[in-house]
Design a protein that fits this description.
alpha/beta; 283 residues; PurU_ACT (chains A, B, C, D); purine biosynthesis (chains A, B, C, D); 13 strands; Rossmann fold; seven-stranded mixed sheet; homotetramer; hydrolase (chains A, B, C, D)
Chain lengths: 283, 283, 283, 283
């Protein structure tokens, strides 16, 4: 007796005729019914991107076997993921809890297809929230002297818990270049401005000083080049002259949490692919 | 010496395995390079929808020949369109010119892939604007006594000019059921409310009386059931207690024009397919 | 030694010349420095509305004494509130926690100037969340047979805790007409649609069936006329054909929580005044 | 027999107690009925800003006479304007007509309370549009050699036509520092990005390269410091990976035209006051 299972297939390769035909042929061979499919041909890079959601009674091995020759022929960057397996996610935070709260609440209600084996923070303030959601909380204080050790300990936790994604949920420490490189493509940060406006520290105060009429937040992949990583999502809200910089901070919490949650959701659903320094988001 | 030509292929049929493989095979056979592709499997209706943009050196006949057996096999509703052929569009208007102005300006700048052989109005107010854009303007006054004749004359113009789309750009007459039926799927109206709120007359005044905080516009296909046609696009703008109903009207002009122009653009680009009473918009 | 104290003054009355002069004179007499001021003359009702934030070293009695003759002269509906006194708020909920979570989190971070002495629910699901935030949780199950008793008990809690505002944070019971009347002007509900579209039950499923392109939420004062109370705030988010009704529900949680939190914030800051069936929102 | 006339009064001065009382007293003395009033106390600069719309049977002289002593006492920057007198506006453009089209159309429908005695352009492309709207069109070509003469001729036109506002409606020449200074506070530009992101040339191509998910436009006062003038209004629209830089340009036209038209409307309605490098917008 077989039961049907759902998978997400993502792939990218150099564009040339025949890719869709070859992929759809392999999926047909593996007994797949396609339930969602998106593709994109990048005019800039000449790369082809595809995400397909399928259901099949034949299982992961059959699917991989059918796709393997196609992947070889087109030199694909191929991923096959069971849809019901949540992404193993480590969340880092500091003192402010709005982003953490949104992620944990949405994880619990099923909106975010992630599981969170561990939360890491350089402060103790958010331990009660982690406790409420039943997530182990590891306190790793960071000083200039201990920074290297702290990052080593983080990488140990990433390895020990088979972490696939690290989310910086208003974690207020700058990661070292080495750490950024080792987490490349699997770490998402929320910056509290509409990048590339107002990089660096105190972006809401910069925004206030410039007199902008919209403020925003940017979720992006972490790179060694600070605030320059590939952008996944951006959202803005309206402000006016009567709002102070402190009110910008308070109003911004909601848009930060929302923007980060969307980015994590799409990443966890395998909807985000990298096209050089830009993202393809199949949402 | 051959030159490459661009086509849009749209199709819908009952969903079953193998559609994408068959279509992509036919496109490959016709020498097509896929430049854009979107598909959707409707969980409600069980129908499959697809829109593919391709370029090929082999021409329209080869493309049709390759797709014909696939279309038969899957009992498809199939359309093949040369991308550079603008949609023949008749615009109807009355006294207010904001929607007409947006359509004609965007047609001229190339944003809207339409050509406008004729404008029809029950008033003369907008004739100068039609003249400025060099579009023939036909004045068809409508009274209860002449309504049937007026509609007959409109249908003659639709036939004489090979019209593929009729756009009601704030045309302030209700079409008869018969006319609605004969234009089914090829007439787009802009309603000046966020449907299904505030159907019928004077929607901004209804909105003011109800004290809503957002007002909007809805572009939809015309059906005999007034203000109930399939929705193509909706947009809203924020209002507050200090705005009067008359200011709603003035503020609404911009959102009406924008919403209608988007709907016409997507229809003309063959991005809108009908899934029963709902629209699939591949944008 | 005196210290400065902040107050909010709200007033409404029939419009006639001299109100602002009289009010500003009284405030000057009470040693007030105006830090924020807004006013509105309703062209519909002929009523005048004003909200002034002031700081003064002279205290609440002096302020009331200075305003009393003005209030009498213009037959004002006058309110004077210490700005640092949070609004005593009772939250009602059922099984879904997104709205409750937003309110409690924002209360804790100081965004919402409320205190919550008690949470009431007809289910036990959200007791752990109430516990986490340290708020007493009263379980009042409701059946057709016990509804009258349940509402009586609620009114006892309102009286016992000096409740100034009742928030229905996705409380899934319809209040009786009598209860609506006794809470008139001090109960806020969140409806999960862009009212007046999709009143009644399962609004997201109604929205899906109608094929709308935006879904939304409406925070409004509770009245005996269901889903017809004065609207405080509305927000929308974009959806498309590929989203199911269930996804509308999930996507809607965020906009519901945000819309309700905004309405509660503005009400608690005394920014919302009633102009017949419409609201004046000084934000 | 007297008839009532409407005026806008704007003022700014150093904040201290008694301003509102003094102003409202003067307005009362001049027989004014206040129909709209807004004020703001800037916590940054310590300045007080006020805009009042009034109707009075007593005329402009009486109003000025009543306000004069108050203005002297508080050392106000005071403006008194007849509401029905449109702002004399010179529009500059180059080849692209979307911003000009929006301004002229909205002027004609009465949304923009401006009159346009003359349009200046360094190209002839938009002369037909000026002709259609019946506005004199002056062609002033600009080369490096003739730039100084061209700017001198512009200033002559500004003087000859009693121009109060110069609008750069996608005018593609950089103004000299001297010209910027002589138009300070009375020239509005539209920049085709969400400033301060993407200053300088080809902002949509910069935005594409950075992979942003929202693009926008900024209307600001012209200053000698390019793209750094006080911001009046900003708006954004959503883009995604599938849009090219050329499509950004096309999509951006609508948001540019809208943003500029809003800024011009608010400036013409005397709703925009300068608070150092930031704007107070009473809208």
């Amino acid at each position: 007796m077989t039961s049907t299972q759902n998978f997400i297939v993502t792939l990218s390769c150099a564009d040339r005729p025949g890719i869709v035909h070859a992929v759809s042929g392999a999926l047909l061979q593996a007994g797949c019914n396609i339930t969602e499919s998106q593709q994109f041909e990048s005019p800039e890079s000449g790369a082809f991107f595809m995400r397909v959601a399928v259901s099949t009674p034949e299982g992961e091995d059959a699917l991989n076997a059918a796709l393997a020759p196609v992947s070889r022929e087109f030199r694909m960057n191929l991923g096959v993921y069971a849809e019901d397996r949540p992404l193993r996610t480590l969340i880092m935070c500091s003192k402010e809890g709005h982003a953490l709260n949104a992620l944990l609440f949405q994880q619990r209600t099923g909106t975010l297809p992630i599981e969170v084996p561990v939360i890491v923070s350089n402060h103790l303030d958010l331990k009660p929230m982690a406790d409420f959601y039943g997530v182990p909380f590891v306190h790793i204080p960071v000083t200039p002297a201990t920074k290297a050790d702290a990052e080593a300990r983080l990488l140990e936790l990433v390895a020990a818990h088979d972490i696939e994604l690290v989310v910086l949920a208003r974690y207020m420490q700058i990661l070292s270049d080495d750490l950024c490189r080792s987490l490349q493509g699997r770490a998402i940060n929320i910056h509290h401005s509409f990048l590339p406006s107002f990089k660096g520290a105190r972006p809401y105060h910069q925004a206030y000083a410039r007199g902008v009429k919209l403020i925003g937040a940017t979720a992006h992949y972490v790179t060694a080049d600070l605030d320059e990583g590939p952008i996944i999502e951006q959202e803005v809200i309206r402000v006016n002259h009567a709002r102070t910089a402190e009110q910008f901070v308070a109003m911004g919490r909601d848009v930060e949490a929302r923007t980060l949650a969307h980015a994590v959701q799409w990443h966890a659903q395998r909807r985000v692919l990298l096209d050089g320094h830009r993202t393809v988001v199949f949402n």
